[in-house]
Amino acid sequence: MYAAVVRSFERPPRYEEFDTPEAAGGHLLAEVLAAGLHPRVRSGAGGTHYTSDGRLPMVPGVDGVGRLPDGRRVYFVAGDDVPGTMAERAVVDPRRAVELPAGPDAVVVAAAMNPAMSSWVALRRRVDFEPGQSVLVLGATGNAGRLAVEVARHLGAGEVIAVGRDPRRLELLTSLGATYVVATAEADKLAADVDVVLDYTWGAPAELAMRALVTHRAERSKPLAWVQIGSPAGADVTLPSALLRAANLRIMGSGQGSLTAAGIVAELPSLLDELAAGTFTTAARAVPLADVESAWTAPSDPGERMVFTP
After folding, report:
1. For residue 184, what are the CA distances in angstroms to 140, 161, 205, 206?
2. 171 and 195 in contact (C-beta within 8 Å)?
3. Nearest alpha carbon to residue 211 among 241, 181, 232, 233
4. What average pLDDT does this structure show over 114-120?
5. Number of H helices, E strands in the chain
6. Which string of b and e fits 200-211 if b means at least 16 CB within 10 Å?
7. For 250-267, b where at least 16 C-beta lie within 10 A, e where not — what string?
8. For the chain, which has fewer Cβ within 10 Å, the N-terminal or C-terminal residue?
9. pTM to 2 decimals?
10. Helices (H), the chain
11. Residue range 122-142: average pLDDT?
């Protein structure tokens, strides 16, 4: 089969022949219809993701939409011990897959499920989120952060505060459910009394926002759940011990390891229903897999998710 193949962490994947994987132990070999180029895929292909074992060659891709041998279309999350989804064929574990209804376009599903899943699963599985509570999205002008604003509002957040870098995209978030918006550079002035933070940045923005939110908290003993999801602003933060003593601050992650695969997959059908219903805004651009090498580093429009189609 043909696939996007990474032979060096210093270069983009190349379209070339690769051994077709074998499906065994109840797994199925699917024809891949669409696979999204998510930040998680980029970091895996660059060898920088925390799950990377450094082995090469590899096929990137963590999820996708595929057609099973019986003709059914499914959205599936790739297993950890099989080649990735940016290929003509991929191994599907039925326990990590959910059948698509007739309506949704494969490219749209491949573009939206991964970024939307980050906030959907965090609010439904990592914290005891209740309707009416307030949510702050740190890194809200990224693709996943923008969807997080919509997801939080859809799940019943009474207030959604969006913090992001891009002024133009930040202003657009009010039409998607943000109560108000704050520039990342002003994160040290945050005085909101929120219940949950969905953190897509980490690094310096998280340090500024965390200190400000704790300092201005009206009731320090009220739980503040800080859910760490992404770290493009830095892998580390300086966390003063006083912040942990001065407030009921609970820091946790949401991702591979902090959630079981079964727990993630259990949330897929309900999220897929919402995507099929057009509940969330999705911008997808389909690109032939054969163009993966040039497309990998090509600029894309803000908010748009590239999807490879064999």
Report:
1. 9, 12, 7, 10
2. no
3. 241
4. 95
5. 8, 15
6. bbbeebbbbbbb
7. ebebbbbeebeeeebbeb
8. N
9. 0.90
10. 39-45, 106-121, 143-154, 167-172, 203-215, 241-246, 261-276, 292-296
11. 96
Structure tokens at 297: 């580093």
Strand 305-309 vs strand 28-36: parallel, antiparallel, or unpaired? antiparallel
Query: Which of 130-139, 161-170, 212-221, 260-269 has the lowest average pLDDT?
Result: 260-269
Token pair for 62: 């963590």
Exposure of 145 by Cβ count < 10 A (0-12 exposed, 13-18 middle, 19+ buried)? buried
Sheet holding 134-138, edge to edge: 180-183, 159-164, 134-138, 196-199, 224-228, 249-253
Band the pLDDT of 259: cuts 50, 70, 90. Answer: confident
Q: Which residues contact 283 (CB under 8 A, 6 or more apart)?
A: 111, 301, 303, 304, 305
Q: Which residue has the tokens 């704050």?
A: 182
